[in-house]
Hints:
- 2 copies of one chain form a homodimer.
- The longest helix of chain A is centred in the last third of the chain and has 23 residues.
- By secondary structure, the first copy, chain A, is mainly alpha-helical.
- The first copy, chain A, is built from 6 helices and 2 strands; from the N terminus they run ααααββαα.
- Chain A has a domain of 63 residues: Arc Repressor Mutant, subunit A, CATH 1.10.10.
- Helices cover 58% and strands 6% of the residues of chain A.
- Chains A and B meet through α1, α2, α3, α5 and α6 of A and α1, α2, α3, α5 and α6 of B.
- The first copy, chain A, binds a DNA duplex through α4.
Amino acid sequence: xxxVPPFPDRADDTATVSSVVELLEVLWGGGREMDARPVSVxxxxxxxxxxxxxxxxxxxxxxxxxxxxxxxxxxCDRLEAAGLVQRTASxxxxxxxxxxxxxxxxxxxxxxRSARExxxxxxxxxxxxxxxxxxxxxxxxxxxxxxRRAEAGADVVPVARTA
Amino acid sequence: xxxVPPFPDRADDTATVSSVVELLEVLWGGGREMDARPVSVxxxxxxxxxxxxxxxxxxxxxxxxxxxxxxxxxxCDRLEAAGLVQRTASxxxxxxxxxxxxxxxxxxxxxxRSARExxxxxxxxxxxxxxxxxxxxxxxxxxxxxxRRAEAGADVVPVARTA
DNA sequence: TATTGTTATACTCTATAACTATA
DNA sequence: TATAGTTATAGAGTATAACAATA
Lengths: 163, 163
């Protein structure tokens, strides 16, 4: 059973958000999704990107994941072996690739999203309608603000201090 | 620069939450915090637990992380080598350990939390007071409901489908 | 004998650097 | 030559299984 971090001592806005972030980090930050489960978090990130922008080359995917070409190449090796992703020769350049989700990959992503939404629905059902409404209003606004800053190139949530 | 997933097609509550989860996953799901940064996500989870419950043994820590003893033992090897965690002989049983954050480990965690809260504050500043209030009300309620379910042993957010 | 912690082995993920092929 | 992609190598994380020491 996962540990649940404590409520923040201060009635501070940022501390509240931070504590929820830490809650989620502990709850599904474990690496055991490599175990009985078919797809790791890293592979999942690839699927997210390809679902949104199919047909991109490896270099573009590398940029979207903020990773390195070799790592992404190996990720694609395994995803291709798993039948979730397909490497196709580019029509414009013979040294580039086109990366696509296979129908299996698309179905997998759809199933995963369903499962997550089902699990989230259980939590949301434990909240009052007013609380739920506040959460959704707040999250949508947060999402808009975070996306705005991410597009500007800012680090929205640093994982560790720089010094 | 990180990719930003699209807004959900449906005006569905769970899809909204799910899309925020995916946003965060892409934004700070990258593994490059192993690079120039001092502590990995896995190590960070250890610090969270030890900050909350210092003096526990390796078995208890393993349970809190929902991991395996060997993985946690190796994690502690590196955290001890980094000077963030300390293994001490238990006072009650000679085959058990007591795990503690060192002063360095505690200071590190405090600094990290400050940095995160500073970054989050930038996003929150981009939101209206009403939106911010809604977010905090909603997150606190979500947190309570999620903790309730986590304590009951439920998987709050499955990473991949079971089938 | 059962439990705590560590080590042996094997896999995924990550990165830098070297390499092949194309532009 | 510069770029796209792959492979070589090395380090960290994860897990199962075998092991030592203790209860």
